[in-house]
Structure formats: structure tokens, C-alpha cells
Design brief:
It is built from 3 helices and 41 strands. It is mainly beta. The strands form 7 sheets. The chain has a 9-stranded antiparallel sheet, covered by helices on one side. A hairpin with a 2-residue loop joins strand 8 and strand 9.
Length: 536
């Protein structure tokens, strides 16, 4: 090899070594990623009754690699005379969500149409599609067969039916899609119904346990209907529920004991949605006593085995069609942890994600439940939204819950539409009196009365009562990060404290009660703590 060529190769090799040794290899790295964005439209399929407005679709833009520009979103493919609200195109920025609804004129043919979105910005374009399933208006009818009262909706090839058992307090013993019943009605403690509890007698072992079950008692005695009415599109019932344990009130097998509440219930179809029915409850306490603040089962939801997966949304960004979660409830005697359900719905589904979805808009954003192992009818699945109430004299609890049959994706779209119709919560504030405990002895001028509380509306007052008489108002808003940790979405400032001057009271037993009022006027009366006062 000639000397000049050797020299050239030597120089090249030395240069390469120098580049590697000095980090020159960075020149071989790929260029940094360019700004980009992702466009989404959810859900991918949407059912709409011809001649109406659809549930909302949520469109969004998420930036990648520092993208921060505006994105224009246009629409194509809508039938003639159909329209969107807001009218597209619209401009979105990264992280922004926008609901879009569609009005479909009554002249539109039923069937499926594909709507296309085109998102452009920063020299980039992204697309998305939506299948609009245009359905005929559901055909609604009511009828009675023996002891069963039925409300039925037929939409195309789908038939959804709700059945109320008149001899079991008008509870929902059937909610079916095309003949497949989701509801477990093996005994009066199941069904879809209102089950009511007293914080002063919270368990079966407590004397005078005030478990009040709409369907009847544990001896299979059914709560009788006091009134019923069927119209062309609604069923009304009124019942006086039985005590679950009549033995605690002088009754027994064949000798049921009515409770001190009336339950009125209206079952109606949700307009323009053949798979969704509304249950409106009005529960009136006519007794003269107070049943202490407690979590209620409003409603209790029992589902047949084989529909075993509990599905819900548990993320931090509700109402954006975030990914839902699947959960398998524990077998009895274990109960599930309190699941965070900020969209306030839960569903039991089969392997195709179809089943029974229940939405209780004014509930707290939590749910819990269990599985009872074994095949139906003995085995069952259960869940309830977290609802709280105090049944003081004259208290009236009114709330809505919605039952939706079929795929959860369809049910969730309906729930997103209903979300905009929410009003102030029907339920009481929730909390715990931590000190004193029942049986404690208090003394001195500054005995601590303390605990925590929060509501579906902000708490406005925490009042301390001794033997039914107001002693004063507690300081509210003390830091309780442990409560916020146990109840996601709640403030850390939920603690309360009051210093009670016990010298103003005689020595002996006294009843300490906390009364909490929220800004919507809802009242919670916490379970009574019977304490002793002992001063020199």
C-alpha cells in the first residue's frame, strides 16, 4: 500500500477515535422528537333516538413533546339538516376537553352513519371517527301480571323490562334485556330497593336493631303495598317497609312489624333512551324518634351470579371518558374497600362488558359491595353507592337513581347526558365523633368534643348538643389529611373540635350529640355518645 494512502487512512482513523473519545458520537444520535398532538373523540359509538339530541361526545387534544399550539377541529358526515352543538369547527388547546352533541331531525332514516373529525394545527393533522346509531323511538307500555307490575321499552330488536313485585314492597325483582334478568331476588334482602339503617343500632347484634328493608323481613314476610298506580308510562307504589328483625320489636315469624317510614317510588322510562329507566324515591319518616346518621343503601343493588365483574371509573378526571376499572368484589364475609367512583355509577358486567349499570347522581363519589359465592339464586353480587342520611322526626329523603341495561359504553354516554341535570344532593353530611366515646367519663372546663365531617355540599355548622340542648358550635376546618386519604376527593380541612365546660352539668350520665348542617340545609345527627360527667 502506498505511503499517501496509509497516511490518509491513519488521519481518518485518528479523527474517528477523537470523535468518539470527545463525545462526537452524539452527532450520530437521532434528532429530538418534534412537537405533536393526539386527538380523541369518545365514545366511538353513540346511540341516538331519531328526532332528538344525542348524549355528549367528548373531543380532546393532548400535546406531545412540548406541543402548545391551537388545534382546529372540523366535522363531516352528518346527515342533511342535522347539526352539532357547538357548531364545528371549534378550536382546542392541549389538555382541553369539549362536549359535542348532535341533533338529528325526525326525517332521518334509522341506521348507522359514520361522522369524521379532522383536527389540524401546527402543520399537523389528525383524525377521529364516531359511529352514530340512529334508533327509532322506544315503544313504552305498562301492565300487571299477577303480583308483578311491569314497565317495558321496545327499541328495534331490544326489549328492556323492569318488574316490581307487589307482595315485596314494590321492589325491583326484574331488570332484563331481551329476556335476560340481571337482578337477584332470592330473598327479601336482595332485589334493587331501599334498605335503611340507624347509626345508633348499626349491627344485627344491637338491641332494637332498626334495619328497615323495603321488600320485607328475614322471615320472608313481604312489605304490603298501601297504594299503586299504573299509567301509560309509569308505575307508582307506596309501602310501609318491615323491620328486618321483627323479634326486636315484639314480632316474629308470621308476625311482621312495620317500620316508621313510608317508601314511595316512581318508575319511569328515561325519555328517548329505551335501555334506561329512572327510579324516584321519596322516603318519609313519621316516627317521633331519631335514627342516627348512617350510611344507607339507597339503593341496594343485587345482581345474579355470572355477571360478576364490577366496573367503574376511578380516575382523577371524571367526565372525560377516562378508562374505567374492573374490580372483583370480595366474597362474604369480607366487604370491599370504599371504591372511589367520582362519576357516581357502577356496573356489574359479563365478559362482553354488558350488564346492569346503576347511576345515583346525588350520592357521594364512592361505592362498595361484596360477592356471595355460589351459583344463583343462592349466590349473588352486590353493590351500593355511598349514601348517608339521618331519619329525624319528619325527615324526608328524595333522590333519583337510574337503571341502564346493556353495554357499559352505551350506559356511560347516557350518564354523561344526565350529569348536566344534577341538582343539590339529597343526602346528609357524613362524619364521626371520635371523642368522647360512649362510656367515657368527662370532667373539667375543657373536655374535648372532636371528630371530622364533610358533605356533598360544604359544611356550614357543627353544633354540639348535650341532652338535646345546644351547648355551642365547634370550630370546623381543622387539618385532617388522614380523612382526605381515606376519602379521595375530600378536603384535608374536615376536622372539628369543641371544648365543653362540664361543670355546667350535673354529675351522672349525659348524651352528647353532634349535629352537622351543610349549605344546602341538609342535617346530620350523629349517633349518640352516652358519657358520664364526674366533677368534684
Amino acid at each position: 500500500m502506498s505511503s499517501p494512502l496509509i497516511a490518509i487512512l491513519s488521519i481518518a482513523l485518528a479523527t474517528l477515535i477523537l470523535m468518539v473519545g470527545c463525545g462526537g458520537g452524539a452527532h450520530l444520535s437521532p434528532p429530538p422528537p418534534q412537537p405533536d398532538f393526539v386527538f380523541s373523540a369518545n365514545p366511538a359509538n353513540l346511540a341516538i333516538t331519531v328526532g332528538t339530541t344525542s348524549p355528549p361526545v367528548v373531543i380532546s387534544v393532548q400535546g406531545k413533546n412540548g406541543f402548545s399550539g391551537a388545534v382546529n377541529v372540523a366535522l363531516s358526515g352528518l346527515p342533511q339538516s342535522a347539526s352539532s352543538s357547538p357548531t364545528l369547527p371549534v378550536t382546542l388547546t392541549p389538555g382541553q376537553y369539549q362536549e359535542v352533541t348532535f341533533s338529528i331531525p325526525s326525517s332521518t332514516q334509522t341506521g348507522s352513519i359514520l361522522v369524521q373529525f379532522l383536527a389540524t394545527g401546527g402543520g399537523l393533522s389528525r383524525s377521529g371517527s364516531l359511529s352514530l346509531n340512529i334508533e327509532p323511538a322506544p315503544i313504552i307500555q305498562t301492565y300487571q301480571t299477577g303480583d308483578m307490575l311491569f314497565l317495558q321499552a321496545v327499541t328495534g330488536n331490544d326489549t328492556v323490562r323492569a318488574g316490581l313485585l307487589a307482595t315485596w314492597g314494590g321492589t325491583v325483582t326484574e331488570f332484563s334485556l331481551n329476556g335476560v334478568n340481571y337482578v337477584n331476588a332470592n330473598d327479601p334482602g336482595r332485589e334493587v330497593q331501599a334498605e335503611l339503617w340507624d347509626g345508633n343500632t348499626p349491627s344485627l347484634s344491637d338491641p332494637g336493631f332498626w334495619g328497615t328493608v323495603q321488600a320485607g323481613d328475614h322471615d320472608y314476610d313481604g312489605s304490603p303495598l298501601l297504594a299503586q298506580a299504573l299509567t301509560a308510562d309509569s308505575i307508582y307504589i307506596k309501602t310501609q317497609p318491615l323491620h328486618w328483625l321483627p323479634e326486636d320489636f315484639g314480632g316474629g315469624t308470621g308476625n311482621p312489624v312495620p317500620s316508621d317510614v313510608f317508601v314511595e317510588q316512581w318508575l319511569t322510562p328515561l325519555p328517548n333512551h329505551g335501555r334506561a329507566f329512572k327510579l324516584h324515591y321519596k322516603i318519609t319518616h313519621f316516627g317521633t324518634d331519631t335514627h342516627g346518621n348512617s350510611a344507607q343503601e339507597c339503593p341496594a343493588v343485587y345482581v345474579n351470579r355470572g355477571i360478576d365483574t364490577f366496573q367503574y371509573f376511578g380516575g382523577s378526571s371524571p367526565w372525560t371518558y377516562g378508562t374505567s376499572s374492573n374490580f372483583v368484589m370480595p366474597d362474604l364475609p369480607q366487604l370491599s374497600p370504599l371504591l372511589y367512583t367520582p362519576e357516581r355509577w357502577g356496573a356489574y358486567v359479563d365478559s362482553s362488558n354488558s350488564g346492569l349499570t346503576v347511576y345515583t347522581p346525588s350520592s357521594y363519589p364512592y361505592s362498595s359491595g361484596f360477592n356471595n359465592p355460589g351459583p344463583s339464586p343462592d349466590g349473588t353480587n352486590d353493590f351500593s353507592p355511598f349514601t348517608v342520611f339521618t331519619f329525624y322526626p319528619g325527615a324526608v329523603l328524595e333522590f333519583d337513581t337510574y337503571l341502564i341495561a346493556g353495554p357499559v359504553s352505551d350506559a356511560r354516554a347516557i350518564i354523561y347526558e344526565l350529569h348536566h341535570q344534577e341538582t343539590t344532593s339529597a343526602f346528609s353530611p357524613f362524619g364521626v365523633l371520635e371523642e368522647p366515646q360512649a362510656g367515657d367519663t368527662l370532667k373539667g372546663t375543657s373536655a374535648s368534643i372532636a371528630g371530622w365531617t364533610f358533605g356533598t355540599s360544604p359544611v356550614s355548622n357543627v353544633q354540639i348538643l348535650v341532652d338535646g340542648t345546644a351547648a355551642g358550635s365547634a370550630t370546623y376546618g381543622l387539618s385532617r389529611p388522614d380523612v382526605a386519604s381515606a376519602f379521595p376527593g375530600q378536603s384535608t380541612d374536615t376536622g372539628f373540635q369543641y371544648s365543653l365546660d362540664t361543670t355546667k352539668f350535673s354529675n351522672g350520665q349525659h348524651a352528647i350529640v353532634v349535629k352537622v348542617t351543610d349549605t344546602s340545609g341538609k342535617v346530620a345527627i350523629f349517633p349518640t355518645a352516652l358519657v358520664s360527667i364526674s366533677n368534684p
